[in-house]
Amino acid sequence: MIQNKQQRYGVTLRWLTAMLFLLTSLVLLVASSPTAAQDAERCIPETGFCVRGDFLRFWEQYGGLDFLGAPITDIRTEVVDDGQTVPVQWFQRGRIEDHAIYGLRLGQLGTEHLLHIGYNIWDPAQRASGETPGCHFIERTGQNICEPFLAYWESNGGVQRFGLPLTPAREEVASGQEGLVQYFERYRLEARPDGIRMGDLGAEALAMGSPTVCTNSVPESLRNSFERIPFRRSLGCPGETHWNIAIARQPFERGEMFWIGLPDGSRHVLALARVSSLFQRSNADTWSEAEPAIPDITHINGSSTPPDGRIVPQRGIGKVWASDPELTARLGWATAEEEWGEANIQRFDRGWLIWWLNSDTVYAFGPALGDLVVFPTPRLTPEGPNLQALLEGVPAPTIGGQPVVRTQSVDFYRFPGALTDDEIRAISLVAEEVLASGSTQLGNSPKGRIAVRFEPSSGGRCPDLGVAYTGQRTIIMYYSPGANRDDVRHVLAHEFIHQLQHDYYGSGDHLQSDNILLEGMAVWASSRFYLNEQGEPFYQVIVREALRSGQQLSLTRYPSGSCFLTPGGPASFYAQWGSFTEYLLETYGRDRYDKVYRSGWGRSAGSSDYRGVYGKSLGELEADWIAWVQSQNW
After folding, report:
1. What is the pLDDT of residues 436-446, one digit of tens each?
2. 294: which DSSP letter?
3. Most confident stretch, 28-37, 238-247, 453-462
4. Residues 184, 267 within the same domain
5. For the chain, how many structural domains are there in total?
6. Which of 370, 439, 625, 633 is nearest to 516 (CA)?
7. Are residues 517 and 503 in the same domain?
8. Is a pLDDT exceeding 70 seen at residue 37?
9. What is the span of the domain harbouring residue 521?
10. What is the DSSP string of 130-182?
């Protein structure tokens, strides 16, 4: 047992094999440059376009005219291949994309081109079974890289620059000539009598069909927040930004509502709830001065008077609240009068981004019922290499290992034999999204940076594949190369929630918390990142199937001596604890959950003062929870 600040306080399972393996782009991170670099530019007379600022530095770093070619558009906002809305600039042979907190990267033009012409890159018939002599075999895509392309690919950056191979070498008419070509994720290589050249994929892609070009862009002051939104791919193009708009906010028992009046005369009411599941709704404000300011509430509680200490919302907010039974049930009663303040607001095709200046908090609303994040505006300081913007607060511990990548909140390391650098970089993409989502659920953000180290998994009677150990601002994860990335991301999300729990409850209360509540909250709060094909949290699915199979649910019969990941072992309890946490939050609210969480005295399951907080023993609450699960329409 590790003691004090290094005490182990979280152990996570490998859960299940993820449903779908996604090829994730390798991000080419570029740190923010000094102000002088923002003013630099280079113009190419032949095309009439210029490259500026960070785009210029990235363009030069990755080959400039020799590799990417000349610019053929200005910087503009587009919806790119993975559905994200980002600033981009097109070049003769490629596209540079600015993903804000994740850095600049090269667009996947090779992938896009093949899909556009109907080539199935996942067709097993197009994949090799192994390495051809004299070639380099990439198992992940099932392709060999052979001469005449191999030497050129290896000597000019390999995977880092070109990406993975997507096709074998094949005859094709490309760039106006017939010859041997091979496609990679970002480029097409062409064999010519005078040597290997890069194909003009950028120019060809623009000629083949216009991309989705957005009229407006996300302003710089909102970009870092926008890139933390897990559902940003669903928002579509950004609309006009409104600065310092006067809006009203009203708190409710389980959520908040906003009234927004835009300069175009439109009026909107937005509602959100965070307990026990995420919920949001956007409505037009149809209230008029001819209507009563206070809505009729007799259909809600059989009386014209609200409960003691509660308030009936009025006017636009009140009309929306009282006329929507689901909204009324989700949010409960208002707990205070409307508060007026200022906000910076950007609408999207299918959502909202609101920076509420009164509390320096960001709210994002998407198209789906659960598309909601709320988090404090991150405080960044240019302390990293080349003035890279990093999270202010407690620095990440130095935990040893080879440094791999830094996001704004997390430092990633690895030991030899663990996940590869490329795998860790791809997995790191979810870090800021998870922390923003966790902040929504818990109501706080990290107080400092976090260090994550990957170590190789081992065998033996109890293999540690997928197990993670969390200490204060440190996470150790056991995975070897080739592990399913969706699986790793879920475990990492679970461990990030433990870090947020530590900062929210404080070291003393958190390290002594009841395991049921400690792990149950982490399962519940990270469930957005572990859903089945129907969008259901897996912990709900596991509990439902256990009931259907006749399994007896128990919160405290924790199996000792068995391996953590074996069927029926300790890991099987996590789903039940996540469901129990959801039940407590929905039935009794967050304040009492926080109180019972802080009453733990030794980590063992059942050690919290349930009777003192809820007026019932854990056994009685367990019976109520099972009845609640049986009543759910899961």
Report:
1. 999 998 988 88
2. S
3. 238-247
4. no
5. 4
6. 625
7. no
8. no
9. 512-634
10. SPPTTSEEETTTTEEE-TTTHHHHHHTTHHHHH--B-S--EEEEETTEEEEEE
